[in-house]
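4.2 Preliminary Data

To establish feasibility before requesting continued support, the project team ran the inverse folding procedure on a target of 376 residues. The structure was first converted into the token representation described in Section 3, and no sequence information of any kind was made available to the design step. The complete token record follows.
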């Protein structure tokens, strides 16, 4: 029997004299060479590896693969074969790298090809989830194999350098706000519906912050696009509607809610300022829109006829949305601050259902019982 070290040596011997050749452009960062190339997707799973999940974190060069992210990434590729976009992978090469330029001087010195022995190891520094999603997508659609992805190659200078590269590549990464994600998403019908409401509806027009998911104390906006999107998502969940029908229904719902919350209209009429409303009331915050959407959803599931659901929602006018209402403490407000955690959304929903004389779901009833016992 050959031990693991011997098997690795035998594998290296098998590939002696064989090499990978990649078209590449050579660059320099911090005095070190790196190379930018294009690799066919079918090659990605075969040559790029990532550390074993069972290796201790201190001797790994990257985080453990989060397999829960893979289905969404894989479906993104498979569902959008004509316009998916993946950024470059970053990898270290543990082995010799030989660069051959197409010319000995001028710009041609930077373009050419790199040759890497097949016995070398390629370690992903950034992009392991993209690499794993590509592998899964290829199993369902092998035709994707001829497409390419950019790869930035660095020469492996040891574990410490690889770990530092991972830290540096992710140090300043900033996830875009949920609002700007909704603003720019052209594929999702709900995002399109939400943008349309924000731009055209008399309730929201000119009063929705389109980019940031938080509002500064002095902002003249009353809502965020991400909060409106969450409200629409909970409102329309599970309803079998065509896109135009959903848009009409959502607009009708929010415009009727608007008649039951006078402060929203007072901001539009400039009788109150948006900062004052946000400071003194909770009904323009994300938790309220989410909770209103959930309450509306239960009514719309029974009937989308306005003459049926509007009268049942009318008691909403009697809700005291002011922060001074002690009923919100422990529900929508924790320690003096509005909270939008799942538990707080649920407790806000149960409060609204009770005010509207609506039945609670089993989950909501358990949450309400725990709150009443002081366990929340």
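Position-by-position output of the design step:
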């Amino acid at each position: 029997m050959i031990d693991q070290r011997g098997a690795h040596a035998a594998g290296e011997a098998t590939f002696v004299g064989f090499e990978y050749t990649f078209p590449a452009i050579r660059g320099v960062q911090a005095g070190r060479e790196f190379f930018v190339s294009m690799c066919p997707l079918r090659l990605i799973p075969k040559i790029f590896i990532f550390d074993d999940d069972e290796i201790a974190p201190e001797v790994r060069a990257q985080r453990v693969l989060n397999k829960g992210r893979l289905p969404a990434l894989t479906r993104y590729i498979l569902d959008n074969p004509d316009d998916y976009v993946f950024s470059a992978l970053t990898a270290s090469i543990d082995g010799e790298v030989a660069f051959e330029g197409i010319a000995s001087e001028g710009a041609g010195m930077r373009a050419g090809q790199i040759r890497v022995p097949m016995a070398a190891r390629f370690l992903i520094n950034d992009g392991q989830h993209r690499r794993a999603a590509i592998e899964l997508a290829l199993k369902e659609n092998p035709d994707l194999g001829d497409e390419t992805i950019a790869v930035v190659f660095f020469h492996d200078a040891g574990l410490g350098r690889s770990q530092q590269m991972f830290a540096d590549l992710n140090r300043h990464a900033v996830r875009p706000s949920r609002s700007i994600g909704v603003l720019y998403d052209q594929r999702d019908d709900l995002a399109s519906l939400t943008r349309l409401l924000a731009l055209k509806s008399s309730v929201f027009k000119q009063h929705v912050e389109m980019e940031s998911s938080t509002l500064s104390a002095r902002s003249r906006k009353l809502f965020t696009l991400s909060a409106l999107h969450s409200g629409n998502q909970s409102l329309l969940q599970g309803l079998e509607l065509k896109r135009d029908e959903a848009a009409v229904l959502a607009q009708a719902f929010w415009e009727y809610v608007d008649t039951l919350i006078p402060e929203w209209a007072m901001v539009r009429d400039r009788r109150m300022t948006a900062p004052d409303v946000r400071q003194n009331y909770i009904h323009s915050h994300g938790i309220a829109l989410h909770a209103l959407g959930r309450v509306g959803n239960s009514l719309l599931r029974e009937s989308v006829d306005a003459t049926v659901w509007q009268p049942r929602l009318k008691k909403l006018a009697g809700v005291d949305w002011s922060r001074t209402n002690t009923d919100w403490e422990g529900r929508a407000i924790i320690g003096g601050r509005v909270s939008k955690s799942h538990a707080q959304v649920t407790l806000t929903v149960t409060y609204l259902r009770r005010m509207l004389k609506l039945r609670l779901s089993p989950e909501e009833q358990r949450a309400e019982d725990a709150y009443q016992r002081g366990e929340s």
